[in-house]
Amino acid sequence: MSAPGGAVLVTGSTGNVGRAVARHLALAGETVVSGVRDESSGGGAVRDTEARVLDFENPAGWPAALAGVDRMFLLRPPQISDVRRVLFPLIDRALDAGVRQIVFLSLQGVQFNAATPHHAVEKYLRERSAPFTFLRPNFFMQNLSTTYRDDIRDRGEIFVPAARARTAFVDTDDLGAVAAAVLTRPGHVGKAYTLSGEQSLDYYGVARQLTAALGYEVRYAAPSVEEYVARLTEQGAAADYIEVQKMIYRVVRMNVSAFPNRTIRRLTGRPATTFAQFAERERAAWAR
Questions:
Q1: 7-139+169-197+258-272 CATH pick, 3.40.50.720, 3.30.70.260, 3.10.20.600, 3.10.310.70
Q2: CA–CA separation, 123 and 111 (whole Å)
C-alpha cells in the first residue's frame, strides 16, 4: 500500500476506465475523489468515493477538486484535442498543489506516433519533471460494447479500418486494477507500462468470438480508411476526433498493437481477461 497521505483524484470517473480505477482504489481502502463534470453527474460516481466537480474547461473549480489530493489518475476526455490549452494547465495546478504522483492514461505505441495528443502530454510531464507513471494500454475490449456497439447489434458487423492486423485487447477492469496497483504501491514513479492482453486476435477472430457469445452472426467488414471516415462523418463525428482515430488505426495496421504480454498479471497478480470471458460477461450490451 502507499504511504499515509491524501486522497486520489480520479478524472473521467463516470466512464468505463475511470469507474474501474475508482472502484479498485476504493476496494483497496484508499480515499478516492471522483472527478465529475458537473453536480448533476455526481450521482454516477462509484460508491464509497467522494464526488467533486472537475470541469476540464473551468480552471476556477480546480483548487476545490484538488484539495487534500496527493495522487491523480489523469485521462484525456475524447472531446479535448487541445491538450496544451486544457490538460497542461491542470497538470501545472496539480503539481503546484503538491500532487506526488500523476498516473496518465496514455496510448500504446504513443512513442511511435508523435502527432497524438497523448504524446504531447507525456512529453510535457517529462519536461516538467513531474512524478509520472504512464499506462499505455492496448485497445479496450469495451470499444466493442460502447463505441462500436450499434454497428454490431444493428448491422451485425465490426466497422474499423484495421485490415488483417492483430490486437491484444485489454479489459478496462484489468486496467483499473493496474492503476490502483501503481497508485498504492511504491516503485512506479517514472515508469511507463505497455499493457496488453495475453492473447492476440484479428477482427475476424473477434467477430467469431462475438458470434459464439451472442447467438447471431457478427462479421468483420474490413472497411478502408476512406469508408471508415465516411461512416464517422455521416454519424456527425468532429474533424479532430476523426483525425485522432485515423492516427490510432494507422498504428494498428502497423501491428504495433499485436503483441500480447503479461504486464497486467505482473502488476496485479492475476491473469488478463480473455476476449471470450469479456464477451460472455457483457453480452447484454449487444442484445437484440
A1: 3.40.50.720
A2: 10
pLDDT in tens, the chain (288 residues): 444 569 999 999 999 999 999 999 999 999 999 999 888 776 778 989 999 999 999 999 999 999 999 999 999 988 888 999 999 999 999 999 999 999 999 998 888 778 889 999 999 999 999 999 999 999 999 999 999 999 999 999 999 999 999 999 999 999 999 999 999 999 999 999 999 999 999 999 999 999 999 999 999 999 999 999 999 999 999 998 898 889 889 889 999 899 999 999 999 999 999 999 999 999 999 999
What is the distance between the alpha carbons of residues 18 and 96, in angstroms, rounded to a whole number? 23
E strand residue ranges, 123-206: 132-137, 157-158, 166-167, 191-195, 201-202
